[in-house]
Specification:
The complex is a heterodimer. By secondary structure, chain A is mainly alpha-helical. Chain A has 5 helices and 2 strands. The chains are: A mainly alpha, B mainly alpha.
């Protein structure tokens, strides 16, 4: 990343785009939705999957904060609890929201890479 | 050790959140023993859950429970507010500050505002708590059990605080020097710590007692109305204190910067700003809590 040596306005744009992508891609809500895209999972399985998927370790406070927000927005729903563990799954609205978000991130990443390539900043 | 601490931190989450997710969180903590970072994450999560309550929490908590939570929240805010406000008072209590109020109109006006609203807030607190306290005392007289224990603990905490205050006043009268010795300072810090502890015990006991008694809707409304007044008074006092500090720096800089002045030295100035910040935060939290209760009432 240091070898890019982008300066001025382009440097600032690059910084903010990468920061945006970085922040969005480690958003706990997005990570949870992405994990649940595979199928219903309970809390522990989500944390394991997210760690394998993105190298991010979700603490219980972060995880259940995200689950609560997503559930209250109707993007996920809880299934009947098994023992004390309750699996969650994506709702139709959650699938749509995740797909839309990932498409926008994909478009942003592709555009950013194209521009960097055009500027000769990528090999 | 960490598992026990994690259990305690879980108790800091809002009631609605705990009812919905605590069992699952405990199951997760059982699978993955908590580390130091886990505890920090839980603390951050508890704070976030308080600041951004669940939108569906009305389905988890009934209106009476929501109102009781808000009432005990306002009481906790008032105790913390009073502690911070007392710190502010201590830095501006000397006679020259009262005299400066006569010379500088803004200083005088803000000082009077603080006093008037402090009395108003105290009256609102007593009047608001009176019906619930009467019902709780009446029930505790008839029944032995947890409620009697809770009221006894609250009474003991108030007595300990009153006794310690009496001791501190006696110590202050026995000292004839204008400058506080290390012993005097130590006694004051001990008194403040005991006061905070007693305040905390009273808040917890009052909260548990409030949930242990049945209270008619009209008394809940009465308490909530007066808690609203109390919360508004906290914000007015915080704003007046901030204005007072600004006026002190502009109108009476010599007094403010004197060795015992409110803005003498960096540490005293920082402590003053911290106290005002704490007062504002307590007022804002109390108003937020009250708004949630009124919203819950309006939705039923």
């Amino acid at each position: 990343m240091e070898s890019l040596r982008l300066t001025g306005v382009r440097g600032h744009c690059y910084y903010y785009v990468m920061r945006y992508i970085g922040e969005r891609s480690t958003d706990p809500g997005l990570l949870v939705l992405t994990s649940l895209a595979e199928g219903p999972k309970h809390g522990y399985a989500i944390t394991q999957d997210v760690q394998a998927l993105a190298g991010v370790r979700l603490g219980p406070g972060t995880l259940y904060g995200a689950l609560a927000r997503l559930e209250s927005k109707g993007l996920i729903e809880g299934l009947p609890a098994e023992d004390r563990r309750r699996p969650y799954r994506l709702t139709a609205a959650g699938s749509d929201a995740l797909a839309e978000h990932l498409r926008s991130v994909q478009l942003l990443a592709r555009t950013g890479l194209d521009r960097l390539r055009a500027a000769g900043a990528l090999g | 050790m960490n598992a026990r601490l994690a259990g305690l931190v879980l108790a800091l989450y809002p009631l609605g959140f705990r009812r919905r997710y605590a069992a699952e969180m405990k199951a997760l903590l059982a699978e993955e023993p908590p580390r130091g970072m886990t505890l920090l994450d839980l603390l951050r999560g508890a704070l976030a859950a308080h600041l951004r309550p669940l939108s569906g929490s009305a389905e988890i908590l009934d209106t009476a429970t929501r109102v009781r939570l808000s009432l005990s929240g306002v009481l906790a805010c008032w105790v913390a507010f009073a502690a911070a406000g007392f710190g502010f008072y201590k830095t501006t209590e000397d006679h020259p500050f009262a005299l400066a109020g006569n010379t500088h109109p803004l200083l005088g006006a803000t000082h009077t505002t603080i006093q008037v609203f402090a009395v108003l807030a105290s009256v609102a607190l007593v009047a608001g708590a009176l019906p619930a306290a009467t019902i709780a005392l009446h029930r505790a007289r008839r029944e032995r059990g947890r409620l009697r224990l809770l009221l006894g603990v609250a009474f003991l905490a108030v007595s300990v605080f009153a006794g310690t205050t009496g001791l501190l006043i006696a110590l202050a009268h026995s000292v004839h020097s204008d400058h506080a010795s290390p012993i005097d300072r130590g006694a004051f810090i001990a008194w403040g710590s005991i006061g905070l502890l007693c305040g905390g015990v009273c808040v917890v006991a009052a909260r548990k007692a409030l949930f242990a008694i049945s209270l008619a809707r009209r008394w809940l409304l009465w308490a909530l109305s007066l808690a609203t007044l109390l919360s508004a008074a906290m914000l007015v006092i915080a704003a007046a204190s901030a204005l007072y500090a600004v006026a002190l720096a502009i109108d009476a800089p010599t007094l403010a910067g004197a060795p015992d002045g409110a803005l003498a030295g960096t540490s005293t100035s920082i402590s003053l700003f911290v106290q005002m910040g704490a007062m504002t935060a307590c007022g804002a939290l109390a108003i937020t809590s009250i708004r949630r209760a009124w919203r819950a009432l309006a939705s039923t």
